[in-house]
Task: structure prediction
Amino acid sequence: MSLAENTRELDRLFAAVRVLPVLSIRREADIFPLADALLAGGITTLEITLRTAHGLSAIARLQQERPELCVGAGTVLDGRQFQSALDAGARFIVTPGCTDELLTLGLDSPVPLLPGIATASELMMGYRLGYRRFKLFPAEVCGGAAVLRSFSGPFPGVRFCPTGGITQAKVADYIDLDNVMAVGGSWMAPREAVEAGDWSTISELSRQSLAD
Ligand code: 3PG
Result:
């Protein structure tokens, strides 16, 4: 897909539901109840990281059995993982940072790449190639909403998905910024709630996030 299509597809994914749960699956048995709890709370798009051994299989199984969910792969660190994520059926790819290898793969990818950046210089590496949508990571550490306000001057037309350290209480700081496409993080599925199988809390947190 061209990078213009990359941008359009990401905008389409986040047009209606502007929060992105970032999930690390620690137990295989959690895959469906967790996804169903998020769906019940109104979530339609989610990111599953490749940080755990269950990441790729969770993407593949959800793609097959919950086609109403748009499932992307996160924490993709290199070309090998990029390909594995595509093979698993990921509908988009998210990386915590950007490397030449990943940015080049995104130029010719069948699904959109959302490259991670933390500085203007990293953004400009992607910008030069035509990327206009980025993940800001780790958002709360690298300046939060203030850095996004600052980026809106030199980089009009660029929009972000900030993630990293964002809590329910902080979503409101980001969501109304003109250059924010979506807000991502793990706050909708806290580890304790997942471990306890407290799916109703996860649905409720999703609902609250969408109400912001
Ligand atoms: C990510 O990869 O986007 C983050 O690890 C999510 O950050 P959080 O767990 O601090 O929300």
